[in-house]
Amino acid sequence: MITGNLAHTNGWHLLLNLCGLWVLVTLFSRDLDAARLLLVLGSGALGVTIGIWLLCPQTQWYMGLSGALHGLFVWGLMRDLYFKRRGARLLLLGFAIKLLLDWLGGGESSPSAALIGARVHVGSHLLGSMAGLVLALVSLSWPARR
User: Fold this and answer.
1) Does 42 map to a domain?
2) What per-residue confidence (pLDDT) applies to 87?
3) Which run of H or of E encompasses 135?
4) Within a domain: residue 56?
5) CATH code, domain with 67
6) Residue 46 φ then ψ, to 5°
7) Residue 139 falls within a domain, yes or no?
8) Domain limits for position 65
9) How large is the average pLDDT for residues 28-49?
10) CB-based burial label for 81 (10 Å; 0-12, 13-18, 19+)
11) pLDDT tens for residues 119-132?
């Protein structure tokens, strides 16, 4: 569980997660420096790990960074919404639809599952999203962080 965020099922899985990381870093570059990126990703990964341990006891193994990436995406979205940046509401709507489709598909019928050759752990996406939301709300509530 500790290294699950760093391990991947195959090269396609790793490539998919690295492409997602690149897109998110590019999308939220105005709010990210190296330290903040590590803090947000690390918090997301920790949230996913603890969440799976406590809330998904049926999970036998977990691999991939996608849960933490979902946390980074929600963290960035919340900042964009807070600062009233253009396109934030549309991104939030698209993200909500994506999470719903993942959930309804159970992690087995998504294009990502077909590409990586493994079931997608949709619970990790929700857990990472919640971790990103908590981190965003806490950081935006501190006046010095605005």
Assistant:
1) yes
2) 92
3) helix 122-141
4) yes
5) 1.20.1540.10
6) -65, -40
7) yes
8) 11-145
9) 94
10) middle
11) 788 888 999 999 99
